[in-house]
């Protein structure tokens, strides 16, 4: 089955040709862990997960990496303000993040490299760039010389002649305003967050972190690299320049970028203060999976405007969809399965894939068992946890035991009824005697 995605680099939907046979290697820019991630970040992370699940659904093996940015100005500022060591702060927020990702049914990436654990490799890459003339020292750090880079700015379609480069920060003595920092020399503001290097003690710039962590975990050329659209420039543009200069190979085959989650017409962001965390979503009575359903409802390349009414609608739809699953699992309907696969493998058309799930749910010509099997098949990509949500998949032998226990109770054979209950428990189910009769639930 072919996989097609919109490649930011070419500006077209392209077929993915994995470099390593049936294995697809993908890298996602992860969060900076000094606070809770907001739901805009989680939109991007959910799309990464849907991408992974789609590639797996198409029969490939995936090697998936998301980095954890745990060296950053904002981390230093926050840890100083709160009087906690930076490593303790970032460890705490990494744990919160991992719990939030789990609650969204996001599969854990195979590697979650932390910048602090890869500084050695970053310094080696910078040494190479210095040796080969791509980098030079200035008063406050080591800079990458953009003029030495081939095709700089192709990803972002920068017009280097027309652009004023005033947006680019850094030392007054750098050679060109566009040159960016690979390494920042230590200052008192860094509060001891600094590492030794042959070219001077300091810390890595943000871009080199991803260039090195992706190389160490996945190799010099990646099949897919993702992030939200704000990373196209400067972050991804600079990653390409550094990696291709250092490795002498193309850095990434396919660049996949997720559009923003918006609120009141603006990008949701920490700096604008207009953000909502997943914790707030849960406090307001929503399941994190309702948020996932909401994310699926918009194409990843379209801006999605977040409203609480929209989330309410997603939650209602999710519960109703799960209601269509029955206790028996039949056969996956091949025709629907093909239509579903065509939608998701064609640039992740999740809005249409969800609509197709509803078509299956409402198709009166399908038996309940086949409907259930087909929806569970789709759920490998959608990740809505439909089986769990419906709490319906009760195996036949458990149903049989429940029936025998009912009989024992009717004849007041309490010893036998207790024995059967123990047996049901031993198989991982809880027995609840309610006024509507006996129910079983999978043990939590
Ligand atoms: P950060 O922690 O700010 O480095 O962001 C982590 C990831 O979330 C990056 O890939 C960002 O591009 C992405 N991101 C940040 N804000 C939004 C938003 N409003 N919508 C979608 N993705 C976002
Ligand atoms: Zn990155």
How are the SSEs placed, and which strands pair?
Elements: E1 4-7, E2 12-15, E3 23-28, H1 39-57, E4 61-66, H2 73-82, H3 86-103, H4 119-131, E5 135-138, E6 141-144, E7 180-185, E8 202-204, H5 206-218, E9 222-228, H6 232-247, E10 252-258, E11 261-263, E12 266-267, H7 278-283, H8 288-296, E13 304-305, H9 308-323, H10 334-345, H11 350-362, H12 368-382, H13 386-390, H14 396-410, H15 414-426, E14 429-434, E15 437-442
Parallel strand pairs: 3-4, 3-9, 9-10, 11-13
Antiparallel strand pairs: 1-2, 5-6, 6-7, 7-8, 11-12, 14-15
The structure holds adenosine monophosphate and zinc ion.
Zinc ion is lined by residues 29, 210, 235.
How would you characterize this protein structure?
This protein is 43% helix and 16% strand. The protein is an alpha/beta fold and 444 residues long. The protein folds into 3 domains: 4-258, Rossmann fold (3-Layer(aba) Sandwich); 262-382, Orthogonal Bundle (Isoleucyl-tRNA Synthetase, Domain 1), CATH 1.10.730; 396-442. A 4-stranded parallel beta sheet has the order 4-3-9-10, sandwiched between helices. Strands 5-6-7-8 form a 4-stranded antiparallel beta sheet. Strands 12-11-13 form a 3-stranded mixed beta sheet, with helices on one face. A hairpin with a 2-residue loop joins β14 and β15. The mean pLDDT is 93. Bound molecules: adenosine monophosphate and zinc ion. Adenosine monophosphate (AMP) binds at residues 29, 31-32, 40-41, 43-44, 227-228, 230-231, 258, 260-261, 267-269.
């Amino acid at each position: 089955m072919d996989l097609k995605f919109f490649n930011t680099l070419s500006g077209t939907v392209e077929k993915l040709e994995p470099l390593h046979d049936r294995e697809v290697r993908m890298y996602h820019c992860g969060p900076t862990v000094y606070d809770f991630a907001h739901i805009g970040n989680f939109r991007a992370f959910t799309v990464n997960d849907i991408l992974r699940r789609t590639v797996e659904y198409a029969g490939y093996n995936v090697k998936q990496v998301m980095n954890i940015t745990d060296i950053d100005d904002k981390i230093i500022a926050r840890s100083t303000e709160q009087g906690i060591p930076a490593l303790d702060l970032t460890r705490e927020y990494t744990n919160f993040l991992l719990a939030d990702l789990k609650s969204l049914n996001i599969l854990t990436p195979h590697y979650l490299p932390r910048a602090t654990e890869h500084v050695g490799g970053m310094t080696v890459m910078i040494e190479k760039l210095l040796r080969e003339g791509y980098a030079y020292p200035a008063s406050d750090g080591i800079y990458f010389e953009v003029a030495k880079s081939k095709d700089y700015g192709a990803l972002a379609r920068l017009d280097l002649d027309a652009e004023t480069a005033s947006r680019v920060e850094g030392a007054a003595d750098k050679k060109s305003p566009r040159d960016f920092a690979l390494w920042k020399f230590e200052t008192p503001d860094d509060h001891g967050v600094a590492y030794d290097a042959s070219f001077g003690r300091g810390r890595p710039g943000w871009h080199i972190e991803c260039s090195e962590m992706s190389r160490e975990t996945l190799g010099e050329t990646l099949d897919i690299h993702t992030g939200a659209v704000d990373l196209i420039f400067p972050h991804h543009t600079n990653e390409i320049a550094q990696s291709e200069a250092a490795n002498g190979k193309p850095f990434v085959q396919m660049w996949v970028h997720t559009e923003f989650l918006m609120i009141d017409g603006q990008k949701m962001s920490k700096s604008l203060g207009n953000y909502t965390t997943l914790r707030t979503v849960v406090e307001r009575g929503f399941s994190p999976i309702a948020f996932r359903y909401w994310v699926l409802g918009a194409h990843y390349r379209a801006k999605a405007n977040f409203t609480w009414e929209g989330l309410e609608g997603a939650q209602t739809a999710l519960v109703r969809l799960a209601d269509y699953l029955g206790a028996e699992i039949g056969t996956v309907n091949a025709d629907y399965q093909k239509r579903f696969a065509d939608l998701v493998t064609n640039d992740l058309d999740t809005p249409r894939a969800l609509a197709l799930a509803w078509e299956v749910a409402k198709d009166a010509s399908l038996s309940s068992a086949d409907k259930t099997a087909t929806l569970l098949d789709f759920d490998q990509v959608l990740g809505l946890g439909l089986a769990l949500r419906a709490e319906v998949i009760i195996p036949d032998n458990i149903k049989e035991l429940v029936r025998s226990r009912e009989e024992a109770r009717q004849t007041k054979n309490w010893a036998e009824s207790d024995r059967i209950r123990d047996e049901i428990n031993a198989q991982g189910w809880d027995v609840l005697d309610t006024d509507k009769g006996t129910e079983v639930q999978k043990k939590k």
